[in-house]
Amino acid sequence: MFRTALIAAALIVSSFLVAEAQPAANRVKVNGMQIYYEVSGDGDPLVVLHGAYMNIPSMGSIIPKLAKTHKVYALELQGHGRTTDIDRPITYPSLADDVAAFMDAVGLKKADIFGYSMGAAVGLQVAIRHPEKVNKLIAASVAYDAEGWQPQFRAFIPQMTVEMFVGMPFAEDYRKLAANPDGFPALVKKLIALEHQPMAWEADVKALKTPVLIITGDADVATLEHSVAMFRLLGGGTMGDMGKPLPASRLAVMPATSHTAVINQPELLHAFIEPFLKGETPKGMFD
Fold first, then answer.
1. pLDDT tens-digit profile of 257-286?
2. What pLDDT sits at residue 18?
3. Neighbour order of strands in the sheet with 70-75
4. How far does the signal peptide extend, from start to end residue (predicted)?
5. pLDDT tens digit string along 159-175?
6. CB of 110 within 8 A of CB of 134?
7. Angle at 253 (CA atoms; ends 118, 216), nearest 5 degrees
8. Comparing C-alpha atoms, which of 110, 163, 165 is closest to residue 134?
9. H/E segment holding residue 15
10. Angle between helices 92-105 and 118-129 (to 10 degrees)
11. Which single residue of 95, 114, 136, 152 has CA 20 to 30 Å from 126?
12. Among candidate residues 161, 48, 198, 30, the one with its CA nearest the CA of residue 115
């Protein structure tokens, strides 16, 4: 009898802990959309922004890892996942303004931001357009200028068609989550148009005061030279061990990593992100 009671109590506690671990799902009206977002964890606020054609689940286990030490606000951008679409092109500035308005709507005065791919460019635009809202920015697989994309990708952009994308696996994911399951072709059309939009933010990046962690794969969609150039714009690339503090921004290169493989390495991502957010640096011989 006593053993049965202990087992029952353990099951109740276990169920409670599992329930506690589940992210809280919410919706909030922002700029005419119903933005879907999930909140998990506890600590300093961290906004997570997914890539194009993606959603919160497709960001994988990096979100629960970050939620161990941060209060994570993962949101789905215009027309993605469970967030509704509106009659408006998708642009990096407009998505950045959506994120800023989202933060206002949920009472976030300031937060760290982690973005991947399209989400990284959106995060960069949030830091440019709304610097008062960003503590630190983690930008994985990002470019600040269209000339920074790999030549193969730049050559591929003019060949993009809606038909290329409608049979891909993320098209099925879209239909499972979207408020309008038939809206995927319209989303693809907007995202193809996004690739054709001008992108030349060098002066804006150079003027940033926000510390940025740039994460790139060594076979990413942006060239390594472009990532290094961005790091230098942010004050990086100097020699340490000379009695001066290291720059506030950082650069991390993931080996043997293509663009789509970046987000599939949560342990390595977390090992880069957490020390950056904490302001920790490796100790040298002269420290």
1. 999 999 999 999 999 999 999 999 988 877
2. 38
3. 24-30, 33-40, 70-75, 44-49, 111-116, 134-140, 212-219, 250-258
4. 1-21
5. 999 999 998 888 999 99
6. yes
7. 10
8. 110
9. helix 2-21
10. 70
11. 152
12. 48
**In angstroms, rounded to a whole number, what is the distance separating the alpha carbons of residues 187 and 233?**
33
Q: Domain spans of the chain? A: 33-238+245-278
Task: Write out the two tokens for 114.
Answer: 């982690």
Cα 9 to Cα 192: distance, rounded to the nearest angstrom: 54
How far, in Å, CA of 160 to CA of 148, rounded? 19
Q: Which two tokens stand for residue 54?
A: 């993606």
Residue 282 structure tokens: 């490796």
Do 106 and 60 contact (CB within 8 A), yes or no? no
DSSP state of 198: -
User: What are all long-range contacts of 204-208, with beta carbons under 8 Å and residues at least 24 apart?
Assistant: 204/128, 204/144, 205/124, 205/128, 205/144, 205/230, 205/233, 205/234, 206/233, 206/234, 208/127, 208/128, 208/131, 208/234
Query: What CATH number should be reported for the domain whose range is 33-238+245-278?
Result: 3.40.50.1820
Q: In angstroms, rounded to a whole number, what is the distance separating the alpha carbons of residues 253 and 66? A: 20
